[in-house]
Amino acid sequence: MHPMNSDQSIASRISELRTRRRAVILAHNYQRGDVQDIADFVGDSLALSRQAAKTDAEVIVFCGVHFMAETAKILSPGKTVLLPDINAGCPMANMLTRRELLEFKRRHPGALVVAYVNCSAEIKAEADVCCTSANAVNVINSLPPDREILFVPDQSLGDWVRRTTGRPLVLWPGYCPTHHRILRRDVEEMRAAHPGAPVCVHPECTRDIVDLADFVGSTSQIIRYCHETDAPAFIIGTEVGILHSLMKQNPAKSFHALSPLADCPNMKLITLEKVLWSLEDMKYEITLDETLRLRAFQSVERMIGL
Ligand code: 13P
Ligand code: SF4
Questions:
Q1: CA separation, residue 41 to residues 22, 26, 176, 224, 249 (Å)
Q2: What's the structural domain count of the chain?
Q3: Domain assignment of residue 305, yes or no
Q4: Cα 268 to middle of ligand 2, angstroms
Q5: Ligand in closest contact with the CA of 178
Q6: CA of 219 to the centre of ligand 1 (A)
Q7: Residue 298 belongs to some domain of the structure
Q8: Ligand 2 centre and the CA of 47: distance in Å?
Q9: Mean pLDDT, contiguous 10-residue spans, the chain (306 residues)
Q10: pTM (global) more than 0.90
């Protein structure tokens, strides 16, 4: 391979441009391994939001999906936020439109709306508070006990939070197609193949998978659990990109994907080359109408403040 085409040379050109542009590169735990390796910060949705809010860089290159880059723009309006592939969307976020949410609210007058951050800025603007999978239980527990709560757009996370908190949430029927590909049969087969290995799953999985798991948490909570738990092997029930961090941080332990089909094609649209092009051409810039941004900011800010 020509040296200019190697990952090494792309990585060094990214580093050079990152300094010149005064940019920070944020990557979600589901990103490709080589993208995670060049990022300044890798984390779950909550940690990435916090990072986007506090960075003093002028440019944020967001290696994740559209709603994550939008959340960074909501929190840091003065910064240029770039998404290296504008087609990196999230099907779950697209399962709820503003019109549908307004109708849902109309049918439940007086209810509070909790929006999982996996939704558009328009939905965040209509919500009372946002949450991520890492803090959804705390967010729900912080709300007045006498108010009805609409939880959007993920029915699986909502179902898990409803059962964990005992609050009767009204759920929107959205879901993550990637996590819903994990089946009960996968758990049975993987437990038989790796006896004694703890099964760790994301709450975007269906209820039958969540009920069979030893640990349920956000991507960073799964990473922490695997690091702190004294076991030689783990079975991981979330998007397979997370295995990169797990293996890197715990070379003496082994990690097995619950299903190889849990591979999010949207997350994988971001490649090292696209990160480089993004910094070269300052593409694709995420912009938001200021009135909409301010309304969405309130919901995200309430979550971060909790
Ligand atoms: P977390 O990193 O917050 O667990 O996010 C899961 C997810 O599906 C992001 O798309
Ligand atoms: Fe959306 Fe699921 Fe992909 Fe996350 S893993 S971006 S929720 S489709």
A1: 15, 5, 24, 16, 15
A2: 3
A3: no
A4: 11
A5: 2
A6: 6
A7: no
A8: 17
A9: 65 97 97 97 89 91 97 94 98 98 98 98 98 96 97 98 98 98 98 98 98 97 98 98 98 98 98 98 98 97 84
A10: yes
